[in-house]
Structures are given as structure tokens and as C-alpha cells.
């Protein structure tokens, strides 16, 4: 099987990603809301992404503004959306609706076991390095960004 052909210039994309990363340097992650919902042994799989004030419908014609905190699972790439009191929310495509914490956790972990991982699997530097190596061996070009810059890894082989 041939390696996929990149559709964009990796150098140009890296330049854009560098500018995006620079915008978020200095963001203070708040893991407290996540800790109200996620058991300690499962927390190492999540990354803090951002917080945002969102309009939440409570009843017909009744809404409230709440600050939501957005956490992404590093392996499944699915979001867990939590407010400061530990209430969870699901994005419908139009708005955020309250959902039970157990349902939000199931959605965030969906597919994890199918990939051969567990809820305790940490999204660690070691995990990321092994994943990136496997993707490069499979023929993918990778962009890895940090405040120090964007690194391009070309396919191996």
C-alpha cells in the first residue's frame, strides 16, 4: 500500500500552526471541573483545551449563561464539557445541553477499548512518541506543535 500523498505544503501549514500555538501560550488550564467528574485513575488521558461562556437552555424560553470547560481525550479525541460545578454538557450541533456525567464519560471514552487501550491509559509523552512513530512508519507526515515551534516528521521508509 502506498503512503498517502500530502494535500498541503507541510512547511506552510507549520507556519500557520506556529501562529495558532503562540496565541495560546500562557493559557492557565483549569482541571478542577474535570476532577469533579472523572475518577483519578482516568484523568491522565485528558487535555485541557479552553473555557468559554455558553448559553444553556434550561426550559422553553429560559436560558442561562455558564462557563464551560472543555477537555479533550488524547486518544479518542472526543470532548468532555463540564461547568465549574461538575455538570456535564453535550454539543448538539446548535447548543450545549446538560447530560448525566456517566453519559458524558461514556461519550468521551467511546471507541477506546476498540483501539486496544483502557481508560487508565495515559496520554503521555511516551504514548505520543510511540503513536507518532507508528504513523510515520505507515507513511504519514506529522506536525507536532509546541511553544518552541512546529516539528515536521516525514514518512519512514
Structure notes:
26% of the residues lie in helices and 31% in strands. A hairpin with a 4-residue loop joins strand 3 and strand 4. It has 157 residues and is an alpha+beta fold. A five-stranded antiparallel beta sheet has the order 1-2-3-4-5. A two-stranded antiparallel ribbon has the order 6-7. It has four helices and seven strands. The longest helix is centred in the N-terminal third of the chain and has 15 residues. It is globular and about 55 Å long. The chain has two domains: 60 residues, no CATH class; 92 residues, no CATH class. The two termini are 12 Å apart.
Features:
two-stranded antiparallel sheet; 7 strands; 157 residues; 4 helices; globular; 2 domains; single chain; alpha+beta
Summary of the model, kept short:
By secondary structure, the protein is of the alpha+beta class. It folds into 2 domains: 1-26 and 124-157, no CATH class; 31-122, no CATH class. The protein contains 4 helices and 7 strands, in the order H-H-E-E-E-E-E-H-H-E-E.
Amino acid at each position: 500500500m502506498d503512503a498517502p500523498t500530502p494535500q498541503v505544503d507541510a512547511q506552510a501549514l507549520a507556519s500557520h500552526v506556529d501562529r495558532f500555538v503562540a496565541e495560546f501560550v500562557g493559557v492557565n488550564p483549569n482541571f478542577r471541573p474535570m476532577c469533579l467528574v472523572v475518577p483519578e485513575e482516568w484523568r491522565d488521558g485528558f487535555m485541557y483545551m479552553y473555557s468559554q461562556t455558553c448559553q444553556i437552555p434550561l426550559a422553553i424560553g429560559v436560558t442561562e449563561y455558564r462557563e464551560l470547560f472543555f477537555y479533550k481525550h488524547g486518544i479518542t479525541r472526543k470532548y468532555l464539557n463540564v461547568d465549574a460545578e461538575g455538570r456535564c454538557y453535550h454539543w448538539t450541533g446548535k447548543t450545549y445541553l446538560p447530560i448525566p456525567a456517566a453519559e458524558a464519560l461514556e461519550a468521551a471514552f467511546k471507541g477506546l477499548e476498540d483501539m486496544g487501550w483502557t481508560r487508565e491509559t495515559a496520554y503521555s509523552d511516551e504514548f505520543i512518541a510511540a503513536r507518532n512513530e507508528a504513523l510515520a512508519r505507515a507513511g504519514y507526515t506529522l506536525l507536532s506543535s509546541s511553544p518552541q515551534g512546529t516539528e515536521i516528521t516525514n514518512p519512514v521508509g
